[in-house]
């Protein structure tokens, strides 16, 4: 049995991201695998790194008192799925804050003795899927911006912390001009990606 952690980051339950989160959760819940769903807005998650957390960043024991539940869920996850809107070609503040507070020393990685290359701790994670919506067309994200969110998540975060995890990103572009046919096609793409992790 695999353990799935789904993290959703949109303030509106009836949003496109809310719809996609429900789609993902229903598919996993119908399988024999374990699902934990964190709706960051619904939980009232505080994205601000606390002074105590920052002060303990380079100590032998990081202060996880405020994020112990999230820390344990991340460490136990075989598959991490992030569902969020891309705003200004970046992560929503609440998701960026969740990463700041949870992908920390002792949970996601350890500092090397010489503070060189990070030592990964999420070695049980086999897959990470990022599902995002964008108002912009594909060519701006890919050809002008060079997919900044994909590079940050896949290369700067998942790569060093979960080196065995296969990272993939599903992006729904021009979502403000979305028609039913395009939504249906994207839903199929999401279901296929999730199905691969269920087997």
Can you put this structure into words, describing what you see?
GO terms for molecular function: NAD(P)H dehydrogenase (quinone) activity. This is NAD(P)H dehydrogenase. Belongs to the NAD(P)H dehydrogenase (quinone) family. The protein has 199 residues and is an alpha/beta fold. The protein has a single domain, classed as Rossmann fold, CATH 3.40.50.360. The chain is 41% helix and 19% strand. It contains eight helices and seven strands. It has a five-stranded parallel beta sheet, sandwiched between helices. Strands 4-5 form a two-stranded antiparallel ribbon. A hairpin with an 8-residue loop joins strand 4 and strand 5. Helix 1 runs parallel beside helix 8. The longest helix has 19 residues.
List strands and helices in order, with pairings.
Elements: E1 3-8, H1 16-29, E2 34-39, H2 40-43, H3 51-55, H4 68-76, E3 79-85, H5 93-102, E4 109-110, E5 119-120, E6 127-133, H6 138-144, H7 148-161, E7 166-172, H8 180-198
Parallel strand pairs: 1-2, 1-3, 3-6, 6-7
Antiparallel strand pairs: 4-5
Helix pairs in contact: 1-8
In CATH, the homologous superfamily goes by the name: Flavodoxin domain
Report strand %.
15-25%
The CATH topology annotation reads as Rossmann fold
Terminal Cα span:
10 Å
Low-confidence stretches: none
State Rg: 17 Å
Sheet with the most strands, sense and barrel status = 5 strands, parallel
Number of strands: 7
Q: What fraction, in percent, of the residue positions are helical? A: 40-55%
Apparent shape: globular
What is the spatial order of strands in the main beta sheet? 2-1-3-6-7
């Amino acid at each position: 049995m695999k353990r799935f952690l789904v993290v959703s980051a949109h303030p509106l339950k009836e949003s496109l991201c809310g719809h996609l989160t429900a789609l993902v959760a229903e598919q996993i819940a119908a399988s024999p695998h374990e699902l934990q769903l964190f709706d960051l807005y619904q939980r009232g998650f505080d994205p601000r790194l606390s002074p105590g957390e920052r002060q303990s960043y380079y100590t032998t024991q990081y202060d996880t008192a405020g994020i112990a539940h999230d820390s344990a869920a991340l460490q136990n996850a075989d598959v991490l799925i992030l569902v969020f809107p891309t705003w200004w070609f970046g992560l929503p503040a609440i998701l960026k804050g969740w990463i700041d507070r949870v992908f920390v020393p002792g949970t996601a990685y350890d500092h090397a003795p010489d503070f060189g290359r990070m030592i990964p701790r999420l070695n049980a994670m086999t897959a990470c899927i990022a599902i995002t919506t964008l108002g912009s067309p594909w060519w701006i994200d890919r050809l002008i911006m060079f997919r900044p969110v994909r590079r940050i998540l896949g290369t700067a975060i998942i790569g060093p912390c979960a080196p065995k995890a296969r990272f993939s990103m599903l992006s729904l572009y021009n979502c403000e001009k979305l028609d039913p046919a395009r939504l249906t096609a994207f839903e199929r793409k999401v279901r296929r990606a999730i199905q691969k992790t269920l087997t």
